Amino acid sequence: MTIKIGDTLPEGTLSEYIEVETEACALGPNTFNVQELAKGKKIAIFGLPGAYTPTCSAKHAPGYIAHADELKAKGIDEIWCISVNDAFVMGAWGRELNATGVVRMMGDGNAAFTKALGLDADFAKFGMGTRSQRYSMLVEDGVVRQLNVEQGGKFEVSNVETLLGQI
């Protein structure tokens, strides 16, 4: 079953590579409970098939990074990029994209959260196994308020401009 507008985010965890140790987070990969992390926040989430893949690296993630201030001006507390990659890959990709401190690069290494959303996709024919569909969503206090899922390899509705227009 695919998540829809009005649904609460499913139970799950995501991992993020933390480069600077804080009281709350150790250096390196940290695992976060999605429900706890989303509590009381307005979050722009975008999901994509993979770090370092062409559309993801050239258009999808850079758009959210470039327009982060506009999202925050509209009341967004955090921006999450979720991909079926491990926290190390997401951390390295985030550093290359200058996303540190702007977009949280969240790894879903085993695709468990992506599958719970019902937004997984079979990329085996490309040698990539289970991945995420390309999507964006607006989440308020854990509840999906907007959801934009791309159809078959397209990049038309999950871009930052579409989500900005929906907030």
TrEMBL record:
Catalysed reaction equations from the record: a hydroperoxide + 2 glutathione = an alcohol + glutathione disulfide + H2O
Keyword vocabulary terms for this entry: Antioxidant, Oxidoreductase, Peroxidase, Redox-active center
GO annotations of cellular component type: cytoplasm
Keyword Oxidoreductase among UniProt keywords: yes
PROSITE patterns linked to this entry: THIOREDOXIN_2 (PS51352)
Molecular function GO terms recorded: thioredoxin peroxidase activity
EC number: 1.11.1.27
Keyword Oxidoreductase attributed: yes
Residues in the signal sequence: none
Gene3D superfamilies: Glutaredoxin
Top enzyme class: oxidoreductase
Single GO BP term: cell redox homeostasis
Active-site residues from the entry: C56 (cysteine sulfenic acid (-soh) intermediate)
Annotated ranges, domain Thioredoxin: 3-167
Entry's family note: Belongs to the peroxiredoxin family. Prx5 subfamily.
Main function: Thiol-specific peroxidase that catalyzes the reduction of hydrogen peroxide and organic hydroperoxides to water and alcohols, respectively. Plays a role in cell protection against oxidative stress by detoxifying peroxides.
Listed name of the protein: Glutathione-dependent peroxiredoxin
Species name: Pseudoduganella plicata
